Amino acid sequence: MRIVLVGPPGAGKGTQAAFLAKNLSIPHISTGDLFRANISQQTELGKLAKSYMDAGNLVPDEVTIGMAKDRMAQPDAENGFLLDGFPRNVSQAEALDVALKADDVKLDAVLDLEVPEDEVVKRIAGRRICRKDSSHVFHVTYSKPKQEGVCDVCGGQLYQREDDSEDTVRKRLEVYHTQTEPIIDYYRTQGLVVTISALGKVDEVTKRAMAALQGDA
Q1: What pLDDT does residue 84 have?
Q2: Quick one: 84 exposed, middle or buried, by C-beta within 10 A (0-12, 13-18, 19+)?
Q3: How do residues 128-161 score in pLDDT, each as one tens digit?
C-alpha cells in the first residue's frame, strides 16, 4: 500500500506510522529521517537543505520533494510506503501526484488522524522532560511521576520544553490548519481520505487504522 499519514501535532503520527509500517511491511518515510539521512550522507540535496537550514531559512519544497522521490525509488519501497510529514502543503501534494504518475503508480489512501484541538494542547503542554536524560518523558495527566517535578528513573528535574508551552502549541496548530489541513480536502476530491479518531490507547488507534485501511470501517 502507498499511504500518506496526516494529522495535527500531538496526534501520534510518528508512533502510529511505525506500527502501521511494520504491520503492512512497508517502509516508514518521515520528513525528519529524510533530512537527517541526506545531510549525514552529504548528498547534493542534503548539502542544499543544510545551506538553507544554516541560514535560518525554510527548505524549499523542491528540495524536500527531491529527497522524497529519491527515497520512494529505493528497492524497499517498490511495493509501497507510508509517508509521514510529507506532503506538508498542497503544492507538495500536487508534486507528489506528478512524481507518482510518472512512475505509473498512485496512492491507495490518505489516513487522517483526527484529534480535538483541546486534546492536542493537553497532550503536548502536559509533557515533562527529564533534564538529565531527555528520553525520560512524563505527563502531568497520562504518565505522572511518583514525585511531582522529579524523574522516577534517575531523580533528575522535570521541566516543560519551550516548544511544548500552550502558546507555542496553539501557534503550531495555526500553521497546521493553514498549510497542511488543506491537503485533506485536496485528497478528499480524489476519494482517498480515510479519517479515524486518534483518541484512546496506541494499540486501539492502530487497530482502528488497520481496519479503516482494509475497508472494514
Answers
A1: 94
A2: buried
A3: 999 999 999 999 999 999 999 999 999 999 999 9
Measured CA to CA, the distance from residue 3 to residue 106 in angstroms comes to 9
| Distance from C-alpha of 80 to C-alpha of 66, rounded to nearest angstrom | 18
Residues annotated as catalytic are 13, 88, 127, 161, 172
CA atoms of 124 and 27, how far apart (whole Å) = 27
User: pLDDT tens across 41-85, in order?
Assistant: 999 999 999 999 988 888 899 999 999 999 999 999 999 999 999
Kindly tell me the sign of the dihedral angle through the C-alpha atoms of 163, 127, 23, 36: positive
Reported pTM = 0.88
What is the DSSP secondary-structure string of the chain? Answer: -EEEEE--TTS-HHHHHHHHHHHHT--EEEHHHHHHHHHHTT-HHHHHHHHHHHTT-PPPHHHHHHHHHHHHTSGGGTT-EEEES---SHHHHHHHHHHHHHTT----EEEEEE--HHHHHHHHHTEEEESS-TT-EEETTTB--SBTTB-TTT-PBEE--GGGSHHHHHHHHHHIIIIITHHHHHHHTTT-EEEEE--S-HHHHHHHHHHHHTT--
Q: What is the pLDDT of residue 216?
A: 57
One-letter amino acid for residue 199 of the chain: L
- pLDDT confidence bin for 217, thresholds 50/70/90: very low
On whether the CB atoms of residues 133 and 153 are closer than 8 A, the answer is: yes
